[in-house]
Design brief:
Elements lengths: L7 H4 L1 E2 L2 E2 L3 E4 L3 E2 L5 E2 L6 E3 L1 H9 L4 H7 L5 H11 L2 E3 L2 E3 L7 E4 L2 E6 L5 H13 L7 E4 L6 E6 L8 H16 L14 E2 L7 E2 L3
Length: 205
């Protein structure tokens, strides 16, 4: 576990170049009918260091604690829309749409949901962090507390589309560990909620 806030000006570089950016989106958006919806227009950009610092800070702690007290699924989904910021780890988008990608980040988020116990969550986290092929960059527990989000670096030497690369990773996780990955992650503009997780793990960059 990394305990202190990371300064992106100090370590947010790889080989002298700035870390890739991806879009972040606000919470609490409504459509013209006044219904709660997920934001389509970004409010800024983040790096992995920024995401790590936000996830490990106290900013999202209250919302995460409140969400985990909600038992009804629809109510929980509505609460997330109103209270959780989101990120599109795959890159910077002019709007949250697959055909609106401005700059790819080279990242992909793998979503492992539906775990039954906190022990399972810890086991899956350990598997993902330790896997020599997956080599994750960021690993954190999902807003519900019963899932794991894994941000990985895409190996461009495989010459696969984003969707095909995702399928390769999903098949690998199922074959190697019997772990099912949420197939919605194959969408390059997949939105990822950013919860509070003081035990968020990040690879030294």
């Amino acid at each position: 576990m990394m305990n202190s806030t990371i300064n992106s000006n100090e370590i947010g570089t790889q080989g002298g170049a700035s870390l890739p950016k991806f879009s972040e989106f606000p919470c609490g958006c409504k459509n013209r009918a006044g219904e709660d919806v997920m934001a389509k227009t970004p409010c800024g950009t983040m790096s992995l260091v920024d995401a790590y610092n936000y996830i490990t800070s106290k900013q999202a702690m209250h919302a995460t604690q409140e969400l985990r007290r909600i038992k009804e699924h629809k109510e929980a989904q509505l609460y997330k829309l109103r209270n959780f910021r989101i990120a599109t780890f795959a890159g910077v988008f002019s709007k949250r749409s697959a055909n609106a990608l401005v700059t790819p980040s080279g990242y992909m988020v793998i979503d492992i949901d539906g775990l039954k116990t906190k022990a399972q969550v810890q086991d899956v986290r350990y598997i993902c962090i330790s896997d020599p092929r997956l080599r994750p960059l960021l690993v954190f527990t999902s807003p519900s507390g019963y899932g794991v989000k894994v941000v990985i670096d895409i190996d461009t030497t495989r010459n696969l589309s984003f969707r095909d690369y995702f399928r390769w990773v999903a098949m690998y996780m199922q074959f190697e560990y019997g772990i099912d990955v949420d197939c919605s992650g194959s969408d390059i503009c997949r939105a990822c909620y950013l919860p509070h997780d003081p035990e968020c793990w990040m690879k030294t960059l």
